[in-house]
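Internal QA ticket QA-208
Title: Verify multi-chain structure generation after dependency bump
Assignee: T.L.

Test input:
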Amino acid sequence: MPVQYYIFLSIALFCIGVMGVLMRRNAIIIFMCIELMLNAVNLLMVAFSKMWADAGRVDASSAQLFVFFIMVVAAAEVAIGLAIITMVYRNTHSVDINILNRLKN
Amino acid sequence: MINLVWLVPFLPLLGFLVNGLGRRSLSKSLVGIVGSGVLLASFVISLLIFFEVKAPGFSAQVVQLFDFIHVGSLHIPFAFQVDQLSALFLLIITGVGSLIHIYSTSYMHEESSESFARYFAYLNLFVFSMLILVLGANYVMMFIGWEGVGLCSYLLIGFWFKNNDYTNAAKKAFVMNRIGDLGFLIAIFFMITQFGSVTFPEVFAKAASLGMNNSVITAIALLLFVGATGKSAQLPLYTWLPDAMAGPTPVSALIHAATMVTAGIYMIARSNILYTLAPHIQTVVAVIGLATALFAASIALKQNDIKKVLAYSTVSQLGYMFLALGVGAYGAAVFHVMTHAFFKALLFLGSGSVIHAMGGEQDIRKMGGLKKYMPTTNWTFLVGCLAIAGIPGLSGFFSKDEILASAFGHNPVFYVLGLAGALMTAFYMFRLYYITFAGKFRGTHEQEHHLHESPAAITIPLVILAVLSIIGGYVGLPEVFGKNLLAEYLAPVFAPSVPFAVPHHLSHSLEWILMGISSALVIVFILLARQKFANYEDTGKESTGLGKALENKWYVDEIYDAIIVKPLYELSRFFRDTIEKAGIDRLVNGIGRGVQWGGQQVRLIQSGQVGFYIFAMVIGMIVLFVIGFLL
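Actual output:
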């Protein structure tokens, strides 16, 4: 399959992620949208890695190394992020981010 | 001995340090001994140097202490030049200075011991600066002394600084001097750029090689003369000197009569070659000198403050010295500096003695009849008056006669005007004498009871100066009487000018005639003053017309006030109100206020809505992408 398909798919996923972060107020959904953006990038990197490998570059697999990095970091981030959201819920009985503007003024 | 010349200025410096630093702990008598002692020591050394210089076959010597400025090709050593001119000035300064220091120990005795020490410290510092001025071997050294004496003059005029008028007088003196000093400073810069040197022999040699009427020399001579008009109180910068009488009387005698104000004459006499090469500037010097002599003498006719009369008379006599310089009679000018130092110091110290006895009163209308209370002061003051008036046989006669004879040789008009000034001098001096010492006492009863002759520390300097005023003239006898020793002695200093100068030689008969005319007229004017003022009564009548203008000093202070001081104040006010407050302040405050207003507007964006922040971030990123993509 030509690499353009992967690129379009990645763009679509990333845009969905961005729009989700912008539009939604539910913290969990925003979180999921961030994951979506990260994975859009991962997909893109894997696709490019494959493309370069097909073109005969020996060091093309290093891109996949970054994918693992991102997945590990994302996992750590999820652990902390979900904990924060849990704490927020305990305090406010809500996961609506618009309530979290209490630091204002 | 010449190699020890540095001791002459540094002894007074030592005195200044001791008295200045120890002013809280030293007793009055110790301060007096230190202050006068260092000066007497300097005087003894000066005397030894003088005899060495006077010996035949002596040529000018330069004693270098250290390198002062050495930048690129410019080389200014800290060096003293000992020659006939500086040796003579050393004698005048340390000699008259010693007498005045001794006089001061008694005159200032009522001061607290701290201000007594402060006074002597200033006085010693002044003598040090004045000696640096006359001993310096280049114009920069001279300038150092020049500024030093200006500073000390300021400090001593404002010695009683709690009186506002006195501090104003001090400030006036300082500012007026500053105007002149600027001219001197520019002249030095001119010399450095044109000649690459400020050392006397080099400057004079290079100037002489440029020849007559060279524009560079003309400019330098004019600028130096501007400096001289400031320091030596000539038109138009003379107004500070009468006000300088605010200082203690011995200070007026030393600084504002005998020494500092003659610095301008010393400078021009020292630079005689520059002036001989610039005859136009010489004419300017002569005209300004003559104008000052007449102008100040006319003011002195109507003054009622004993010190003011003497101050205007000083300005007038300085005018004569400049007249002499302007007609090329440098020797005569230096001669008059010397005799004037004697009789004017005598007159000032005499007036100090009178003021002392009168308990601080300076208005001659409230004196009178002091003859019988203060015999020594009376006869010494009379000698001073006779000397300054130019009675034959006294010192003032010889020096003034030499100046007038030279003026006649140059231009008979100068002679006539100069003679008119001399007659006015005779008249106002004897008006002063008769009003003060003759007639009946017009002060309060209490003052009359208090009247007494001053103590020995005051009368002894008076007697010594009176003797000098009598015999001081015989070193410069006119040609018809014999040898002019002083002219012979000073000849090497003025030798470079001789090839360029136009000689004027008066025949002996003419000289006799001139002398006879001036002497006879002076005696007539003295008798006139005697007839008018010997039995003076204070009628309290307001004078009118010319008399009123003279009493108010031709309104010069008022004119200066109106055309210089007031406009300056107005300009300052304009700068303060318009430029500073409305311009600069508003700009600075406006920037501050603008930032504050902007902050208040931008603050509204900080809404706390996370969604909006992220939206702004995304928009920002998109904008950055677009920009990156397009460029």
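Spot checks passed. Chain B has a mean pLDDT of 87.
Status: verified.
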